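User: I'm putting together a small comparison set for a docking exercise, and I want a reference complex before I start. The sequence is below, and the ligand is iron/sulfur cluster. Could you produce the 3D structure with the ligand included, as structure tokens?
Assistant: Of course. I'll restate your input first, then give the structure tokens for the complex.
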Amino acid sequence: MAHSFRGGIHPDPHKETTAGRAIEALPAPPTVQIPMSMHIGVPAEPLVKAGEHVKMGQKIGDTDAFVSVPVHATVSGTVKSVGMALHPNGARVMSVIIENDGQDELEPLARAMEWQMMTQDEMIALIREAGIVGHGGAAFPTHAKIRSALGKVDAMIINAAECEPYITSDHRVMLEYADDVVAGIRILLRIFSRIRCIIAVENNKPDAVESLRRAIGADNRIKIDLLKTKYPQGGEKQLIRAVTGREVPPGKLPADAGCVVFNVDTVAAINRAFTQGLPDIQRVVTVSGSAITTPKNLLVRVGTPLSALVAACGGYREEPQKMVMGGPMMGVAQFSDEVPVIRGTNAFLAFSENEDRRVDDPVCIRCGRCVQVCPMRLLPTYLYLYASHDMWDECERMHVADCMECGACTFECPGSLHLTQMFRVAKAKAMELRRR
Ligand code: SF4
Ligand code: SF4
């Protein structure tokens, strides 16, 4: 029986155009722009200067901070400049621009291939050295997640739900790189000895389940759980609830419910680091939406401009009115496609005008649909009321900090209220209040 959680919505999946199409490898572009901040935590400091030659995989940025990861060159070539450049988050951040020499001269991770002889500590250190972050979008440093979960968890959940509309990159990874996924899980099972592993897949991907089953073979430490196809099934708290029946308490982490969750493409990246010595320098990106001529999944180097991905998909079929990095529910709106793919980029979507739902006079008709769909059991209609009157302490009292910004309430609202956007502001204000 497929598992699930309370609430959620059923948006049109829009996955059919890319789910059945094999991943295409995009040649590395002439120039890559690599931001020093592609993760949650402290940005890396550049380690290279303009004019230096770098190899693919060479570390070009790092810091001593615990919640951080090093950054690597994704091509071999010459550093053109080190300075501020436009980031997909809309800000200008410290970045290294490298001119590709087309040689792909690799500097592999030191000691990667000897991992069977490594201690637990050395293995986690290698995951940090590889710069691996969560590939589901949040980009939290994986080594920090592992260290904070060690000794507290008895279940490892591999998040293969991919519940956001349009995105199929994880689906294709499960079909085409299932062996990498399972090998990555086995590496993690060596770090977290004596825990069980559950790969959680939505029941609209039977071919992916079959592919994973083949890769798992007789390994009874790994099982597959089917989830109902529902958004946001891939949210960590919803996933844990659906798979184990456990609740993550408000303000707490999955480890507090005895679980650690990794995205399915993250574990494939872990396998590449340990078996090929390859840091986190590439990823599969879904390029889709009504403004894209031929939607595809592309394997690209981090630092490739989004415009190069669009060109590989035949360009825009019409002028896009809205561009999003990530999914339509939780992605980040873009005003330019001249920003780079970063480690957390799982999709780039471009939409034409007729899909825009903006209205001039949004109004609440008190239908209660937002309350029914909220997976965090919040009261969006009241939260909106308080937030629109700057009553931030009331918002905090009503647990606005638990809002995962999934967008389900906004999607469902017949009054077209900008609920999620308002809660994003309210969360920041409530946090500021608490700090004071
Ligand atoms: S955006 Fe926040 S309030 Fe709205 S449904 Fe998601 S968790 Fe609930
Ligand atoms: S769904 Fe929209 S219109 Fe209905 S109660 Fe919630 S905020 Fe109001």
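The radius of gyration is 21 Å. The longest strand covers residues 77-86.
User: Thanks, that's exactly what I needed.
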